Amino acid sequence: MPVENQNTTPRRALVTGAAGGLGREVAVQLARRGCVVAVTDINGEGLAETITLIGEVGAESESIVGDFTGEGAPEAAVEKVVARWGGIDILVNNAGYGVIEPFLDATYRAWTRTLALNVTALAMACKAAGRVMREQRSGRIINITSPGSRMALPDYTAYTASKAGVDSITRAAAVALAPYGVLVNSLAPGMMDTEMQRSTEVDLARANGRDDLQAFLDERTRRIPLGRRAEIAEVAEAVVWLCLDSPKYMTAERLNMSGGLDKD
């Protein structure tokens, strides 16, 4: 599919965690909408595949391979986008990590790694992009959160706690950047067929002593009021809407896209 709006000045986007799944789909959809897109991930091979897909729609791209939890890594990624294209208009904080472990067996390593990527790196990316956007007096930041941030999930507490942190950061960043015309919102996707979702549910079934994985998955799917799991492409469409099309008066908002699983 060709790039849209080729005669307009392209918006400059950075998508984290873009080596596959939702991040890849968001990056490709942004490219189709006429954006130039930088993508970052620790998985260089997957990121190369994403760059190829972006190239197929005729958009410019930039690959940033590395561990986003390193001190200064989020800031360096934003600096690379600015150096390449002169600014940044869109940041999608999609990179995430989660591990299944019963609460009473929680480990320091799992909590540290989860919070380092899902909270600290995300906050630093918001800060770095926010500073550039403040000077531009425009920009949009979208943070990927989770319905789990408002649920009691004792086998997944580090992840859900980290996403509650994402919700808090989103609100704080939105208020800090509002005077400069910068919008900060989040999106809470439901169950999708991503690599992270699949591996998490395999571990969750094992932790709950469930040998029949398909029966376990079907049972979880039946909890969703719409009766099905989300398609990656449709969730990405909602993220792109927040990036490009949502009202300019909408900020500090959490958009639920969980098929009714997460209810306000």
TrEMBL record:
CDD domains: SDR_c (cd05233). Pfam families: adh_short_C2. InterPro entries: NAD(P)-bd_dom_sf, Sc_DH/Rdtase_CS, SDR_fam. GO terms for molecular function: oxidoreductase activity, acting on the CH-OH group of donors, NAD or NADP as acceptor. PROSITE patterns: ADH_SHORT. Gene3D superfamilies: NAD(P)-binding Rossmann-like Domain (3.40.50.720). Coiled coil: none annotated. PANTHER family: SHORT-CHAIN DEHYDROGENASES/REDUCTASES FAMILY MEMBER (PTHR42760). Belongs to the short-chain dehydrogenases/reductases (SDR) family. This is SDR family oxidoreductase.
